Amino acid sequence: MFGLSFTPREFWAVIHGMILGGLFLISFAGGLAGLYMMRPQWMTVEGLRKQAHYLVTGAWIMAVVAWLTVITGTYIVYPWYRAKPPEGADLTMYPRSFLKANEAIAAWHNFGMEWKEHVAWFAPILATVVAYIVWRYRDQLAEDDRLRKYTIIFFVLAFLAAAVAGLLGALITKAAPVA
Amino acid sequence: MTSNTSSHIPSGPAAAAFLSGAIGLFVIGLLTTLSEASHAVGNALNWYDPSGSLVGKTGVGIIVWLIAWFFLNKKWQDEEVNLKSMFTWAIIIAALGFLLTFPPFFSVFKG
Asked: CB-based contact (8 Å) between A102 and chain B?
C-alpha cells in the first residue's frame, strides 16, 4: 500500500525499537508525573484513589512493554545482527561483522552494542519493581514521601537504562541496519 | 488484581523489591564481566546459540532476582525495616551492576 514495504527483519526491528521501546520511553513522562503528583495536599481522597488506580494500570503496562521489548530484541532481532557471514558474503547483511570489519565504525559494536544488549535488560527488572510497589502500596505512596521518592528513583533508572539502549540501538541501526 | 489498601503495609515488602531488583542487575553485570574474562563462563552461558551468552547472563540474573525477591519478601513481609538503609544498599548494588556492563570497564578483564 502507498509503495511502502518492510522486509521481515525491518518489520521486527520497528516492532522492537520504535513501537515497544518507543512506547516505554514516551509513557515514562506520564508515569513520572503521576508518581510525583501523588501527594495528599494536592489531591482529594477520591482523586488519590483514582490516581493510584491509573498508576497501577500504567506501571504494569510499562513493565510488560519493557519485557516484550527486550524479549523481541534478544530472541528475534539480535540473532540477525550477530549472524556469522558465510565465506565471501556481502557483509552489509551481517551488521556485527560489518561493523567489526571496519575500524572507523567498530566502536558501534565494541561499545554501542556491547553496552546496549546488557543494560537494556535492566529496564524491565526495574520497571517490574516499580509496578509491584505502586500496586502493593497504592495510595499509601501519597502519605509516605520517602517511599514515593525511592520509587521515582527506580523509575528514572528504568528510563535511563531504556534510553541508553534505545539511543544506541537507533545509532547502531543507522550505521549498520538489520535489513 | 487486588491489594490491601485498608491497612498500613510495612516497609519490608518495598525493601525486598528494591534490594532484589538491584541484586538482579548486579548479577547480570557480574556475568557480563566474567564471561568477558573467561571463555569457559561465556560458553556455559550460551544457552541459545543465535543470541549467544546474552541469554544465559540475563537468564541467570532473572532467576537470582526472583529467588532473592521471594526469600527477602518472605522474611520482611510483615516487618518495618530501615528503608533508607536498604534503599542505599540497593542503589550501591545497582550502580555496580551498571558499571559491570559498561564496556570500557569490563574490557579491562578481557581474557
From this structure: no
Strand-pairing partners, residue B52, are B48
CB contact under 8 A, A154 and B24: no
A145-158, pLDDT tens digit by residue? 999 999 999 999 99
Tens of pLDDT, residues A47-71: 999 999 999 999 999 999 999 999 9
Note the Cα B102 to chain centre separation in Å: 16
Q: Do A118 and B55 touch (CB under 8 A)?
A: no
User: Which residues in A lie closer than 8 A to residue B17 (C-beta atoms)?
Assistant: 129, 132-133
CB contact under 8 A, A129 and B17: yes
- In this structure, is the dihedral angle defined by the CA atoms of residues A89, A91, A92 and A96, taken in order, positive or negative? positive
Q: Chain B within 8 Å of A117 (Cβ-Cβ)? A: yes
The Cα–Cα gap between B77 and B54 comes to 33
Query: What's the rounded Cα separation, in Å, for the pair B90 and B17?
Result: 9
Locate the chain B residue with the closest alpha carbon to A73. Answer: B51
The interface pTM score, or ipTM, of the predicted complex is 0.94
Burial of A17 (0-12, 13-18, 19+ CB in 10 A): buried
- Cell digits for A10? 525491518
Residue B66: list chain A partners with CB under 8 A: none
- The percent of residues in chain B predicted with pLDDT above 90, rounded, is 92
Q: Looking at this protein, which amino acid is placed at residue A123?
A: A
pLDDT (0 to 100) of residue A43: 86
Which residue ranges in chain A fall short of pLDDT 50?
none
